[in-house]
Write a structure and sequence with these properties.
By secondary structure, the protein is an alpha+beta fold. About 25% of the residues lie in helices and about 45% in strands. The relative contact order is 0.22.
Amino acid sequence: MQEEIYKTPQQVLDTMLERDSFSKWMGLEVDEVGIGYCKLHYTVKDEMLNGFSNIHGGILFSAADSAFAFACNSHGIFTVALDVTISFTRPAKSGDLLVVEAKETYLGKKTGLYDIKTTNEKGELVALFKGTAYRTSTKV
């Protein structure tokens, strides 16, 4: 039996983005959202760089965290992060276009697991973020 969807993934995304000033500030553009899925992109700006002219790890984390939130809330049930990890695999520079893709790998009654990959224009892995989400009983 398929679970009841309270809002469509697009409606949930629209609701979230109305209030998400941080994702807007970062310049995140959502390309696709579906059940347990989100794909977005952004361009690395000078103000996102660290002291070595590479993207700051916090920026990579934040963009992946946003994709994670959009994917895990797509079921229409308010969902929060329980824990996350991130591995940085290669640097990105100012002007680079980064794509962030979040995929649900497991969905239980109360928890879900997600893999979020950030890749550059060449399709090379820049960061791998893994998240565990907790599903509350509240509808979005």
